[in-house]
Amino acid sequence: MNRMGEAHRILVIEDEPDISDFLSLELKHEGYEVAVAADGRTGLEMALEGQWDLILLDIMLPELSGMEVCRRIRAASQVPIIMLTARQSIPDRVAGLDAGADDYLPKPFAIEELLARIRVHLRRARPSNEDEDLSAADLTMHLSTREVERAGTPITLTAREFDLLELFVRNKNRVLPRETILEKVWGYDFSGQTNVVDVYVRYLRSKIDVPFGKPLIHTVRGVGYMLKE
Ligand code: CA
Questions:
Q1: Ligand 1 mean position to 85 CA, how many Å?
Q2: Ligand 1 centroid, distance to 91 Cα (angstroms)
Q3: Ligand 1 center to residue 61 CA distance, Å?
Q4: 20 CA to middle of ligand 1, Å?
Q5: What is the per-residue pLDDT for 21?
Q6: pTM recorded for the entire structure
């Protein structure tokens, strides 16, 4: 249920009818409202026109690739996107995340795992009720509005980047091992792929550090990262 007490709406963009039928049935059984698009172009149109709480996106799609669909959705919306794909290599996984996906699940997957990840992302996407501001040096995070600014300049972060920054700020001047970051921000073991943490720290630095010259996030070699005030 969303904040309005309505069922969460999930868009499935998948060209294999066996998989989309199966997903549709399972998701409806869980109480979600589901729509299916069978090619990339239709999927993109539906993604941009409708109100979705989450999108499941196949990578190998006719008309428009899943990567491209992901990039274009991300240019317009912060809706959580979980990529589904037969590809398992790390470069592809990172490419998916680079395109703006929040998560990545290789096929074949266990439906229980997919449902668990969907719940994590829906929970995370819900706006925080905390009327709290966090700060570190000249950086401020408004938790209620999920706005971030540094030295008075507003910074736009994705949901995941915001969560990562929140973890850093709440633990400022403390070393955070990669495994801890993975567990706290992603909520589960991302198949032991802590390079995902490095990818996201790079995104975060490009937004909160690089433009301001004075880095807040520091690499602790062989361990992880630390936000130093
Ligand atoms: Ca496909």
A1: 8
A2: 19
A3: 5
A4: 10
A5: 96
A6: 0.59
